[in-house]
């Protein structure tokens, strides 16, 4: 076996996933040009998923529904549901679990996002080869398989016959060839995809190759409802015209820095550089990694993981809707906590695990970064009131208005909370057992008053939560990696400060021949096709909302600033119930919350308008990327 061809790795990615979920819920949408959109006040809402029939009309993700309808009059539109004033992804998340369950019957899988999973099929292929009695491969077992680099002149050909012919009879012997192994991997993936469709009704595509990078690339080559084998021998030709940013992990800053530093565009261009040159520019580990990668060779392991490492939710408050009072901050923390409690409880019941760490993140109005601060503390129990009051306690020192004031300064444009650091739920005693454990007892000593009295827990005076600059998932670095503050030698309260000034360099995050992706450990991430940022799947609606709001701002840039401000306000408030002012306390139940609808005028709004409102926030957000 040649270097780099040792394994068979596949990536399976659902086709237009959210659309398929909506089509299953409403069969009238099947086989139609159809999109899933979020929010609807402005131009019919922003599109986040597109059926292949709609793609044929030129409809793409990130278009406004009204614009898409100009391209396709019959366009059907399904809406993302809303709960607690924000996008509710429950249907999609649950559909994802169904799919993952079916896939897991075939191989050990690594869930990579809400609709894709990697699998290492090497062992399964070896087993299958041992059991194979026939000396010939039956093409009917590879009905939807394409072979990259082999002639695909007609739908009949798919390169398959030439490919099968190239697998010499001797390769069916003891030492099976890399090509044969990929072919047997493709059998397994055909079976897996058929099972997924049969059990869930959802169709998917797949890439089969020797590593994660090639499998991911291959998967996108013949979508939808098809799978592609990418042999190492076909990589040179493919990479010669493949922009560096199209490669997994090179869509972001590392990819841009390679392009700028070396003055090259395509992946294949990198083969002109010696290993020493690449090491010189990018450090030993990354240099070596790139030297192999541009030849299609990569060794990152498929890590068995089916469950997300963190569970959380977030909400944007752009422009005039930014949270400018303590009551609003408390109200929205509580709304997020309600969702978190519900999802954590379900997760505990279904997956038998409990989270021990709670992270709260905020972005302040005018901040150039996607996130300003994140702080964490022990997650004591799965109860919204407790979660929201603890969350408030660990961020309240960020409020410079002072304890006696009703105001929150600077106003917040993003709030999010998440739970992580999972461990097995105690088998007996359920939640009672969980609460009576030693850790929980010590954690429960953490109190909001202790924290608020500790002026030393000022954002600037404590260690950062190892936040990677510029990525939303950086809020959710493993809690164990964070510097923590030991209080009175008994409890562990980890409080993050200002985001660290620079991202981990690629070379720092790589080790040996098996480097982690430069962006950190893979989570349930989606790559934003607009800014290449990797974003947690559940964070995506809020992230998309940014882009939609930014588009809106752009579309109004030629109009008067006052009309832009009004429209930004409309879209923001359309995406969420009005924030509340009034008698909310940290421990208040939502039913006791006194409500007062925040108007579109008033001091805060005036102040924001004078600062440019959402425009300045969104501008600064995007300047960063
Ligand atoms: N998603 C989102 N916002 C984005 C990207 C994705 O909300 N910017 C959601 C909707 C998608 C789902 O995640 O349906 C999966 O993302 P994919 O990138 O895999 O896109 P699709 O599955 O929709 O289409 P494809 O067939 O191209 O994979
Ligand atoms: Mg998909």
Automatic annotation (TrEMBL):
Pfam families xref list: IMS (PF00817), IMS_C (PF11799), POLH-Rev1_HhH (PF21704), zf_UBZ (PF18439)
Domain UmuC intervals: 9-251
GO molecular function terms attached to this record: damaged DNA binding; DNA-directed DNA polymerase activity; zinc ion binding
Subunit structure: Interacts with REV1. Interacts with monoubiquitinated PCNA, but not unmodified PCNA. Interacts with POLI; this interaction targets POLI to the replication machinery. Interacts with PALB2 and BRCA2; the interactions are direct and are required to sustain the recruitment of POLH at blocked replication forks and to stimulate POLH-dependent DNA synthesis on D loop substrates. Interacts (via C-terminus) with TRAIP. Interacts with ubiquitin. Interacts with POLDIP2.
Region listing for Disordered, in residue ranges: 476-525, 563-625
EC number: 2.7.7.7
A GO biological-process term: error-prone translesion synthesis
Keyword presence, Zinc: yes
Enzyme class: transferase
InterPro entries: DNA/RNA_pol_sf, DNA_pol_Y-fam_lit_finger_sf, DNA_pol_Y-fam_little_finger, DNA_polymerase_eta, Rev_trsase/Diguanyl_cyclase, UBZ3, UmuC
Record has Transferase as a keyword: yes
Origin organism lineage: Eukaryota, Metazoa, Chordata, Craniata, Vertebrata
Localization in the cell: Nucleus
Family assignment from sequence similarity: Belongs to the DNA polymerase type-Y family.
Domain of life: Eukaryota
Biased composition range(s): Basic and acidic residues: 479-488
Organism: Gouania willdenowi (Blunt-snouted clingfish)
PROSITE patterns attached to this UniProt entry: UMUC, ZF_UBZ3
Listed cofactors: Mg(2+); Mn(2+)
Domain UBZ3-type: 521-555
Compositional bias ranges of the Low complexity kind: 496-506, 563-575
Name of the protein in question: DNA polymerase eta
Alphabetized UniProt keyword annotations: DNA damage, DNA repair, DNA replication, DNA synthesis, DNA-binding, DNA-directed DNA polymerase, Isopeptide bond, Magnesium, Metal-binding, Mutator protein, Nucleotidyltransferase, Nucleus, Schiff base, Transferase, Ubl conjugation, Zinc, Zinc-finger
């Amino acid at each position: 076996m040649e270097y780099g061809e040792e394994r068979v790795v596949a990536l399976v990615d659902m086709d237009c996933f959210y659309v398929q979920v909506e089509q299953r819920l409403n069969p009238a949408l099947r086989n139609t040009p159809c999109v899933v959109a979020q929010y609807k006040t402005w131009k019919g809402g922003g599109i986040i998923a597109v059926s292949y029939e709609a793609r044929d009309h030129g409809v793409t993700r990130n278009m406004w529904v009204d614009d898409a309808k100009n391209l396709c009059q019959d366009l059907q539109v399904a809406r993302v549901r809303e709960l607690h004033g924000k996008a509710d992804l429950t249907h999609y998340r649950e559909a994802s679990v169904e799919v993952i369950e079916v896939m897991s019957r075939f191989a050990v899988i690594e869930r990579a996002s809400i609709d894709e999973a990697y699998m290492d099929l090497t062992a399964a292929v070896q087993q299958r080869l041992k059991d194979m009695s026939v000396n010939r491969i039956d093409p009917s077992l590879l009905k939807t398989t394409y072979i990259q680099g082999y002639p695909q002149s007609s739908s009949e050909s798919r390169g398959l016959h030439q490919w099968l012919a190239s697998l010499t009879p001797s390769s069916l012997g003891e030492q099976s060839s890399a090509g044969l192994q990929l072919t047997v991997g493709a059998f397994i993936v055909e079976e897996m995809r058929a099972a997924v469709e049969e059990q869930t009704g959802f169709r998917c595509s797949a890439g089969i190759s020797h590593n994660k990078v090639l499998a991911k690339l291959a998967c996108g080559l013949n979508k939808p409802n098809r799978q592609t084998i990418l042999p190492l021998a076909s990589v040179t030709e493919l990479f010669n015209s493949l922009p560096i940013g199209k490669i997994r992990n090179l869509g972001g800053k590392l990819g841009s820095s390679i392009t700028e530093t070396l003055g090259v565009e395509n992946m294949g261009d990198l083969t002109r550089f010696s290993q020493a040159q690449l090491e010189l520019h990018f450090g030993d580990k990354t240099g070596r990694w790139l030297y192999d990668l541009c030849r299609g060779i990569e060794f990152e392991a498929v890590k068995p993981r089916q469950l997300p490492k963190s569970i959380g939710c977030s909400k944007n408050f752009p422009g005039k809707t930014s949270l400018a009072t303590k009551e609003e901050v408390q109200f929205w923390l509580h709304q997020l906590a309600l969702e978190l409690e519900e999802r954590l409880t379900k997760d505990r019941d279904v997956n038998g695990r409990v989270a021990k760490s709670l992270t709260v993140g905020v972005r302040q109005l005018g901040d150039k970064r996607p996130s300003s601060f994140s702080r964490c503390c022990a997650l004591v129990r799965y109860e919204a009131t407790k979660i929201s009051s603890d969350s408030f306690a660990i961020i309240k020192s960020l409020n410079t208005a002072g304890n006696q004031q009703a105001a929150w300064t600077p106003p917040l444009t993003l709030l999010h909370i998440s739970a992580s650091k999972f461990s097995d739920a105690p088998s007996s005693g359920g939640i009672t057992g969980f609460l009576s454990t030693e850790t929980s007892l010590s954690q429960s000593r953490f109190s909001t008053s202790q924290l608020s009295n500790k002026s030393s827990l000022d954002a600037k005076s404590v260690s950062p939560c190892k936040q990677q600059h510029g990525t939303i998932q950086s809020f959710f670095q493993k809690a164990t990696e964070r510097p923590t503050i030991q209080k009175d030698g008994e409890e562990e309260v980890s409080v993050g400060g200002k985001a660290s000034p620079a991202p981990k360099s690629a070379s720092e995050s790589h080790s040996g021949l098996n480097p982690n992706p430069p962006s950190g450990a893979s989570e349930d991430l989606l790559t934003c096709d607009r800014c290449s940022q990797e974003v947690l799947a559940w964070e995506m609606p809020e992230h998309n909302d940014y882009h939609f709001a930014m588009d809106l701002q752009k579309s109004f840039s030629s109009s008067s600033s006052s009309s832009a401000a009004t429209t930004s306000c409309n879209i923001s408030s359309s995406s969420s119930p009005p924030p509340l002012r009034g008698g909310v306390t940290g421990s208040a139940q939502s039913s006791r919350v006194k409500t007062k609808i925040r108007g579109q005028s008033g001091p805060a709004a005036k102040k924001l308008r004078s600062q440019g409102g959402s425009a300045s926030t969104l501008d600064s957000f995007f300047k960063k990327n």
